[in-house]
């Protein structure tokens, strides 16, 4: 298992492709060099002004060290103003525990589902029955954010899964169903 950040950015209208081009050209290799595993990067198909992506770390201590290296390093320093100019909000971040997720190369669309289960045990039983090897299930990581320069959402107990665009059956509402977003 890894520590995974699900980062959901709200962007200025029309800025998504500019950010994605910069991200792919500069930030993927820059983060890899700092010890960060960059996972799936997605366009929210329901909102042209959203960019969703994942990054993973072996544990919280290495997360802090890798973030210090990247955000204190030359790649971020050189390109942060251009990246920040595309964004309205970059603070919608969930800190999770899971195996990360990188879609199959042929996958064009992925369903990302965030669920706030009223009964986590019932939801976990549902997930065991309905989510298969093609799905990556993550749970809230309740460790303290030891890199406060980048806020994360706290006080929530969520389940997040990624998988094929054909979703499994939704859990009963008493189990705390969630809303899925199509990303590609």
Automatic annotation (TrEMBL):
Domain of life assignment: Bacteria
InterPro entries: Dimeric_a/b-barrel, NIPSNAP
Compositionally biased spans, kind Gly residues: 174-184
Recorded coiled-coil stretches: none
Domain NIPSNAP: 4-86
Gene3D superfamilies xrefs: 3.30.70.100
Residues spanning the signal sequence: none
Region (Disordered): 161-184
Entry protein name: NIPSNAP family protein
Organism from which the protein derives: Kitasatospora arboriphila
